[in-house]
Amino acid sequence: MTWRIGLVGLALIAMRATSVCGQHPLPNTTKTPLVSSGIEREYLLHVPPTLPRDRPVPLVLAFHGGNSNGAQTEILTGFSLVADHKQFLVVYPEAIEKNWNDGRRQQQFPAQRFNINDVQFADDIITAVSKEHMVDAQRIYVTGISNGAMLTHLVAMHLSEKIAAGAAVAGGFAEPAVGQFAPKQPVSMLIIHGTADPQVPYKGGGVDEGKRGRIIGAERVAKLWVDGNGCQTPAETGELPDLAPFDQCRVHWQNWPHGRNGTDVTLYTIEGGGHTWPGSLQFLPKFIIGPVCRDFHATAVIWDFFEKHPKR
Questions:
Q1: pTM of the full structure
Q2: What domains sit in the chain, N to C, each tagged with a CATH number?
């Protein structure tokens, strides 16, 4: 099981992130308007300055968490820095009132109260970006954290004919949407979740102590994708080296290989991990979101997973 990724400059992500305000896009990232389902929306698009123009390139959609935005997610994940090195496009979509319609059906969020079609928004972004750039249709990926991770599952499910792989960090699958799980094509899925997440419980149940709806937990979500993809069971298992004992986290992984069309499902269980993006910023105090795992960088692992799983 691959866990260490040799990306040039990846170790600088957290250091560079601390010196850049998360409210504004990085260089070569532009705000782009888009009308989707009759509503004026927008997204940030990062185009590496040396992006090839003579061949198709991958596209990654990175969904922010609730009460966050695209610029903050660009900083938190460092995906634009990796894109510059690995030559792919990254989109950071913006939610309605900073919250996605992820299927929880919570009336306090306008996107969910008015049933905003964020899956269609993702589809429209893919179409729009593909008109302006040479996007590789076999390498379109989705990822996100928290509320954005929940949307990642829905987009991968509903747009399974377009999405090659997804990666969900610190977010389950909305309980009311479980009965809809029926992707037309297999999609490789990476799930990263901490057992000490105080916001979105690893084992499922009430989000923020039930104040924000209910989700099913990481292991049950993995089983949905394993069964949907027809992956091999039982899982391969292992543990990452404890590179940062001070973070009080240990990482166990399970991988279900050999699904249809070469798909895999992988679950990273972070014992003691919080509601965070592993390897990145402690964006809120530990007593609110728990600790950041320092044994790996989620962005590196996610990109490695994406690179290995084109659409087949």
A1: 0.93
A2: 10-307 (3.40.50.1820)
